[in-house]
Write a structure and sequence with these properties.
Strands 2-1-3 form a three-stranded antiparallel beta sheet, with helices on one face. The chain is 34% helix and 34% strand. By secondary structure, the chain is an alpha+beta fold. The chain contains two helices and three strands.
């Protein structure tokens, strides 16, 4: 079966987010009532797996081995069957 995996990687609380801070400042300079901006990365991965459980296993492994740094990042993913 083919699955679409949407993975979001974001900074853990307490870690500096310079891109988010710069974006917030720029939006405030444009007079938007922004309090805070947090930047995340989103990956859309299509993969083949024999079951949803196997797709979840692959997604978790991809995050732990490459896409997220466990020291500073949180991640979560959603999986759906794809055509």
């Amino acid at each position: 079966m083919r699955y679409r995996v949407r993975i979001e990687v974001s900074l853990k609380p307490g870690h500096s987010d310079p891109e988010g801070e710069t974006t917030a400042k720029s939006l405030k300079d444009l007079r938007y009532p922004v309090e805070n901006v947090n930047v995340s990365k989103v990956y859309e991965v299509y993969l083949k797996a024999s079951s949803l459980k196997e797709a979840e296993k692959y997604a978790d492994e991809m995050c732990r081995k490459l896409l997220a740094n466990p020291t500073k990042d949180n991640y979560h993913f959603d999986i759906e069957e794809s055509k």
